[in-house]
Design brief:
This is Cyanocobalamin reductase / alkylcobalamin dealkylase. It is a single chain. The chain has 7 helices and 5 strands, in the order αβααβαβββααα. With 215 residues, the protein is an alpha+beta fold. The chain has one domain. The strands form 2 sheets. A 3-stranded antiparallel β-sheet has the order 1-5-2, with helices on both faces. It has a two-stranded antiparallel sheet with strand order 3-4. α2 crosses α3. The longest helix is centred in the N-terminal third of the chain and has 15 residues. It is globular and about 55 Å long.
Length: 215
């Protein structure tokens, strides 16, 4: 429910819907790369592609929207900003309140070792660890669900030591991706997918076999 999200944020970040409004958080799992992205790119090869992942997600969510012709469906993507430069929604907070993934933050560590350093939080999924992404929010403004019960996210990094290790790795060594394996995971990105996301955006087209013209 939108109210779960608004309840934990300052008014400046609230979503402009009644508290009981139904919303869905959309995650991409490791298999998205092979099952969605590569087929999308090969099908759209002759069109202009600016950002393959964003356009692939947008394509699939617009198809979801078509399944509800009688409903208004508002879609917000994780990369979209308001005119104020604030994000349209805070993806990690949304995932946490929906019970999709646990958002570990500095306040989850009792004995904070970081002093004045800025420490960013990170979501961990009970099945995929850090090998997933939060892509979008789907809001159904006409559907009110007062009866919906809030599921707590799975606290899969429960020890103090592990939480400190997770936040250390994410904040100071994020490039090596070790934070993603803070727990045993059922599935992770393929080597091809790791290479893709580790490559500067301008050079990713080549990895997908896209020519200069397609860019």
């Amino acid at each position: 429910k939108v109210g779960w999200y608004n309840a934990v944020l300052q008014p400046a970040f609230h979503l402009p819907y009644p508290d009981d409004t139904l919303a869905f958080v959309v995650l991409s799992t490791p298999s998205m790369f092979d099952k969605a992205l590569k087929p999308f790119v090969s099908k759209e090869r002759l069109k202009i592609i600016r950002d393959p992942v964003d356009q692939c997600v947008s394509h699939h969510l617009s198809r979801v929207k078509e399944k509800f012709p009688d409903q208004r469906v508002d879609i917000m993507f994780d990369y979209e900003l308001l005119p104020s430069r604030k994000p349209k929604f805070l993806a990690q907070t949304a995932a946490h309140v929906a019970g999709a993934a646990y958002y570990y933050q500095r306040k989850d560590v009792k004995l904070d070792p970081w002093g004045k350093k800025k420490i960013f939080g990170v979501c961990i999924h009970p099945k995929y660890g850090g090998w997933f992404a939060i892509r979008a929010l789907l809001v159904f403004p006409a559907i009110q669900v007062p009866f919906l019960e809030q599921p707590p996210p799975v606290d899969c990094v429960s020890s103090e030591e592990k939480r400190i290790e997770l936040l250390e790795q994410f904040n100071f060594h994020w490039q090596d991706g070790r934070y993603r394996d803070i727990i045993e995971v059922k599935e992770r990105y393929s080597e091809e997918q790791k290479t893709y996301f580790a490559t500067p955006p301008a050079e990713r087209f080549r990895l997908l076999g896209l020519s200069q013209e397609a860019q």
